[in-house]
Design a protein that fits this description.
This protein has about 80 residues and is mostly helical. It contains 3 helices and no strands. The model has no long low-confidence stretch (mean pLDDT about 90).
């Protein structure tokens, strides 16, 4: 998870970009922070999906094959 300070800085830079504009270094910092945020979000979302099992009304596992394969590949990777 991204720290509260980094999220606050992202928001501060976004607000400043809308009002007065950013310097080149601030724009670069903003892009770096946004990329870090997106990467963290994607990792978190993928982890949540790996903890999901889809079950139909009869109790049968109907988890999509792509998700099952992704879970298997995740379990094979060294942590």
């Amino acid at each position: 998870m991204l720290s509260k300070e980094k999220i606050a800085r992202i928001n501060e830079l976004a607000k400043r970009a809308k009002t007065s504009g950013l310097t080149k270094s601030e724009a670069q910092e903003q892009q770096t922070l946004r990329n870090e945020y997106i990467q963290t979000f994607r990792q978190s979302f993928k982890q949540q999906l790996h903890n999901v099992t889809v079950v139909d009304g009869n109790g049968n596992d109907v988890t999509p094959d792509a998700l099952k394969l992704s879970k298997e590949n995740q379990n094979k990777r060294p942590h």
